[in-house]
Queue: 2 jobs
Job 1
Amino acid sequence: MDSNARMFFDENGYYVKHSLFNRDEVAEIRDHFMEMRKEGEKPGDYGGDAKKGDADPLNKFPRFINMQKWDTKTDVWQSDPRLVSTASTLVGDDVNLCQTMLYFKPPGSRGQGLHQDNQYIRQYPIIAAWLALDRCDKANGQMIIVPGSNKLGVLPVQQADMARSFTPGETIIPEEAQEIGIDMEPGDVLFFGGFTIHGSYSNETTDRFRRVFIVHYYAAHLETLPEDPSTSMAGVSR
Ligand SMILES: O=C(O)CCC(=O)C(=O)O
């Protein structure tokens, strides 16, 4: 990877590597998890508002987490050298697995309030590899990033609007912050750091999923954030 990538990441808190996976690989990952979702409930499923039943598409397609604990293919994909080496170069250290996730984001579903991953995971540096399994654009709830927010440290949290976010917390966004939407094609990978503000809005389409395979990695040399309920999602409940 060229050194410009590392410079861009340090400056902006994110970096997109286009076409890191080919279309066949993406189709295999997507189909694998769609089949797995049909098998029924898995440990850690999270998403829909149970009271809303079929009216909330996330009840049928809750997010998977830590699939590597029961799925050998996830373990292969999370350790893919293309993801690991890019993450390692960007973060400037060896990396180890923190967690995996699979978001289905079906048509009509809510997004996730803007946040920093270090508001959930209290060790840093961490880095996410967000592998697009569908075309991602404004209509189906592409990723939103606040460039440069990686330099702000960990920020205060507040209750999110649950009509728009399937998670209950969000970052209190600094006034000067400017968010951008990241258009992506299947196989593109968005890398971002633990302080980078990110999230997504609703999938407004009636016919397009926005599926993504996500791996969070810990840097080999970790520090722990001080205890501070004002910057932690731990105390924000539904
Ligand atoms: O895909 C999204 O909408 C949000 C994902 C996210 O917050 C993450 O990967 O840390």
Job 2
Amino acid sequence: MPIYEYQCTQCGEKFEVIQSIGEDGSKLICPKCSTQSPKRLFSSFYSPGSSTTEPSETSCPTCSTGTCGLPPMM
Ligand SMILES: [Zn+2]
């Protein structure tokens, strides 16, 4: 299951929550001040704006350069 990072809108506390896909986190409360409905932050491994990682269609999971001859995983 994916781990989501949330930030409290009241005190700014950041905390991580393991959630099933489809849960919206509206029932979560801040572990520090118990404020409800923290806002969800993007996880570090899920950064659409990152330019340092190769596009998935050109990077091979085995050799990471595509020179091994294996088709990239879709
Ligand atoms: Zn808080």
